[in-house]
Amino acid sequence: MTTPNGNRSDRSPWNWLLIVPIILPLLPFLYNSDEPRLFGFPLFYWLQLAFIAVGVTCTTIVYRMTKRRR
């Protein structure tokens, strides 16, 4: 929704941080290996869980930095 004077409130440089959790899983050289293992799980599986943590962290940072102050 735009404000009456036409300025958009969703234009923040912090929004660019949301690209990180999108691009990171698309880089196959990061997880194209069986080693190292963590608790018996191959790299691919525990790295997918790490990608979730990165996504949550980036989303939280963007939310906190762009929410309106009341």
UniProtKB/TrEMBL annotation:
Highest taxon above the source species: Bacteria
Keywords: Membrane, Transmembrane, Transmembrane helix
Family annotation (InterPro entries): DUF3311
Residues passing through the membrane, by range: 12-31, 43-63
Record flagged with keyword Transmembrane helix: yes
Listed name of the protein: DUF3311 domain-containing protein
